[in-house]
Request: fold
Amino acid sequence: MQNIAMLLLVKGVMIGSIYALISLGFNVIYRTTGVLNFAQGEFVMVGGLSAAWASGTGRVPLAGAIGIGLGTAAAVGWLVDALAIRPLRQASASVQIIATVGVSICLRALAAIFWGTDPCHLPPLQPGSVQLAGVAVEIQNLWMLGAGAVGMAALAVGFRWTATGRAMRACAENPEAARLCGVNPGRMSALAFTLSALLGGLGGILLTPVLSMSYDRGTMLGLKGFAAAILGGLGHPVAGVAGGLILGVLEQCSAWYSSLYKETLALALVVILLLLRPKGLLAR
Amino acid sequence: MNVPQPIPNRRLFRGPALLLVAILAFPLAARGDYAYLLPLGQLCAIYGIIVTGLTLLMGFTGQISLGHAGFYGFGAYVGAVAATAGRLPVAAALGVAVAAGALLALAAGFAVLRLHGHHLALATLCLGVILGEFINKAQITGGAGGMFDLPEITLGGLVKGSAAGKFYLVWAVAWLVVLWAVQLTASPVGRALKAIQGDEGAAAAAGIPVFWIKLKVFVISGALAALAGTLYAFVYTPSYLGPEEFSLMFSVTLVTMAVIGGMGNVWGGLAGAAVMTSLHELITLGGEKLGIVQVARWEQLIFGLLLALILIFCPEGLMPALGGWAQRARAWWGRRWKMRTRLEP
Amino acid sequence: MSAQEFLVVDRLSRDFGGQRAVAEVSFTLPEGALTALIGPNGAGKTTLFNLVAGALPPTSGAVRFRGQPVLEAAQATRLGVARTFQNIRLFPGLSVLENVLAAMGGHSFWQGSFRLPRRLEEERLRLKRAHYLLEDLGLAHLGEQPARTIPFGQQRLLEIARALALQPRLLLLDEPAAGLNRTETAALAELIRRLHGRGLSLLLVEHDMHLVMHLASRVIVLEQGRIIADGTPAEVQCDERVRTAYLGPPAE
Reply:
C-alpha cells in the first residue's frame, strides 16, 4: 500500500513537472502581456514533434534533435507574437485570447501537414532506471523533474533580478507607464512568447520519449498547464509550479482509482480545490 | 430638454422580421445544386441557439464559460437516452433533456458562479471536459461508438425526412429564441446584465440581485445549449449521435462564435455562429472551385488564418464592424448627395 | 416605530485575516439626521461603511434598519439604504442615463421577456424619473454619453444620482468630496444640504474637515476600529482624544 502511494506520488510529480513547465509558459506570457495563451499546448507539441522528426531522420544526433526542437518551438513562439498578437495590441483581452485560439488551430493544422497524424517517438535522453524510495524510476523522469526545477529557478531569478525581467513585469502592470520608462512593450511581448514557447518546447522534448507525441496532443497538455497555472493563482509562477505538481499527483491517484474516468476525477478535484480556494491555492 | 423615450417597437422588431423573411426565403434559394446548404443552415440555427445563450452570459453579464459544449452534449444524450432506453415519446424526451440541462446548469452555476474571471473559465472548462468524458466513456451513451437510429421529430409527418422541413423546424425554434432574447436585452434586465458585467459590487449597490441574476442567465444558457443538443440529436442527425461534436474544442469554438460576431448584442452571436459554421463549407467549396486537391488537409489551417484575419480587421467583432461600415457609407453618400444638390440648383 | 430604531449598529466587528478592522462598534442614527463619520487613514471607516451597506458580512454583531436586519447589499437597497463608493464605481459600458436606470429595478426575467404595452409604459415612467433626476443634478445634457467619458466631478454626481434612483431613506456617501475642486465641493455641499432639506437622512465619510464641520450636525470619530468620540462638531473638535488621533500626542 505504501509502495503504491509512493509510486503514485513519484509518477505524479514527474508528469506534474511537465505541467509545471507549461504553466510557467502561461505565466510568462500572462505576466508580460496580460494575454491567456491558448496555443501554449501547441508549443509543447511543436517542440516534441520537431525533435522527434529530426531524430527520426537518423542523420541528427539526439543532442542536435533537442536543439532543433527547442529552436523550432522558440521560432514558432516568436512568429505567433509577430503575426497574431502584435497586430492586435490595441484590441481587448478577450479578442487577443481568441486570436491565440486561432493560432492553436493553425499550428495543429500545420503540424498535421508537416509531420502527419501518426504519433512520433523520441529515444530517452538517458535509458535505464534507478531505485528511489523503493520505486523504480526511469532516469528520463528525473530529467523531467530536473528540467522543471531549473526552468522554474531560472525564471524566478530572471524575473526578479534582471532588468529585462523587471521590464517584462512592468509591461503587464501598466504598459503605458512602462513605455514612458523606456521599455518597449512590443519587444517584451516577443520575448515573452519566445521564452514561453521555449519552456513549452522543452516540456514536449522531455515528454515525447515517455508518452510519444502527435499533432493533437497539445490541446489537452495546454489545458493541464492552464489548470495548473490557475490552480496556483495566475501571475504567480512558483504557485503555478506547485499547481502543476498537485495536478500531476491528483491525476495519477484518479488513474489508479479508475483508469476510465481519470480525467473526470482529476478535473472534478480541480473544481473542488477552486471552490475551496477561490483566489488560488497559495494566495493569502 | 426632451424626456428620452424607449426604443420603439418598430425599430426593435425590425431585426427579427428581417430574419423571418430570410428564414422563409432560404430553402427557396437552396435548391438543386445548392440543396447541401440546407443541412448547413440547420447547423447554423442549432449553434445560433447556443451562442444566443452564451451572448447573454458572456457578452451581457460578463461571465465566461468554456464548458457549454458539455451542456450541449448533455442535452443531446439525455434526450437520446430518454427516447431510446427510456422509451419516452420524442417530445417528452426533448422536454426532459431541456429540464435536465437547466437543472445541471443550476447545480453547476450555484457552485462555480462565485468564482470570477480566469477561475470561472477554468471551472467551466473542467465541467465541459468532465461531461464530454462521460459521453465518451459511459456505457449508456454508447461511448465512442455513439448511438444509432434515434427517433426523429416529425411534427406528425410534417417534416419527415425533408431537409427544408427540418430547416424550417430548427429555425422556428431559433427564431423564437432570438425574438425572446431581443426583447429581454431591450428590457431593464438587459441593463442589469450589463451593469453586472461592468461592476458587480456597484450593481449590488444599485439594488441588482447579482448572484441570482447570474445564476438565472447561466441556467438559461445551459437550457438553451441542451435544447440545441436535442435538436441536433432528433432533427439534424437522428441516424447517428456520436461524441465528436461535444469536445473541449467545441466549447472554445462556441466562445469564438460569440466573440467574433461582437459580444454586446444578440445579432452578433447569431452572425458569429453563421460565419463560423459556413466558413468550413466555404473553404471546401472554394478549394473545389479552384481545383486544389487536398483541400481537407489545408482546411483547418485556412480556417485558423481566416479567424485571425477577422479578428485583425474587426477587433470589435463582425456586427459592430458592419455597423461602422454602414455608417461610414451612409455618411459618404450623404456628403455626395449634398454636393450634388448644391451643384444642381 | 420610534425614531431611535432608524439605523441601529449593534456591537459590529469585522476581521480581515486576524486584523480587526472594526471592533465592537455600536451607535444609532435617528431619521432625518446628517451625520459624519471621520477618522485617520486606516481607522476602519470604509469597512464600517461597507458593513452598514451590507456589502461585507460582519464577523460578529448586526446592523438593523427600520427594525429589519441588513444582510446583503441588494437587500439593503430594498430596505432603503443606498450608497456611493470612495473610488467612483459606475457601469462604464452604460450611458449616463442607463447608469441611473439600472438602479430603478424591473429585473424580472419573466416580465422582461414580453414587450407588452404595460411594460413599455413602465419603462417610459422610469425614463422620465431618471431624466428628471439627472436634470436635478445638472447632468441631463450628458444622458446619452458613456459614463466613463464624462468628467470626474460629474461622475461623482452621477454616482449620487444612481443612489438616489433607489429612492433611499438613508444615503451613505463615502468621501464624496475626494478629488473635487473648490467650486465642485461647494456645489456638493449645497446638494447635500438640499437633499437633507427634503427629509433624506445622510451618513458621510469625509476627509474634508471644513465640509464636515459645516454640514454635519453630529460627528462620529473612529480610530483603530473603535469609536473614540461622538457628538456635535464643536464637541468633537475640542475632544482631547480626537486631537491626539489626528495630530499625534501633544508635545511636552
Summary: The longest strand of chain A covers residues 129-132. The mean pLDDT of chain A is 85. The beta strands of chain A are 129-132, 135-138. Chain A touches chain C through one residue (CB under 8 Å).
